[in-house]
């Protein structure tokens, strides 16, 4: 299972940069618009 271990390490190493990018994106666009309960249900049943 060495290939699985490699995947986990790769994922762990890339995650912080993804989180930083997400933080930057969120601060760039402002608050994330929240869905109403109806919109969430509509998406769930798609």
TrEMBL record:
GO terms for molecular function: DNA binding; sigma factor activity. GO terms for biological process: DNA-templated transcription initiation. Residues 20-44 form the RNA polymerase sigma-70 region 1.2 domain. InterPro entries: RNA_pol_sigma70_r1_2. This is RNA polymerase sigma factor RpoH. It comes from Tsukamurella sputi.
């Amino acid at each position: 299972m060495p290939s699985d271990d490699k995947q986990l390490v790769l994922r762990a190493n890339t995650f912080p940069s993804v989180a930083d990018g997400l933080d930057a994106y969120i601060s760039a666009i402002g608050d994330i618009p929240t869905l109403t309960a109806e919109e969430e249900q509509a998406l769930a049943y798609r």
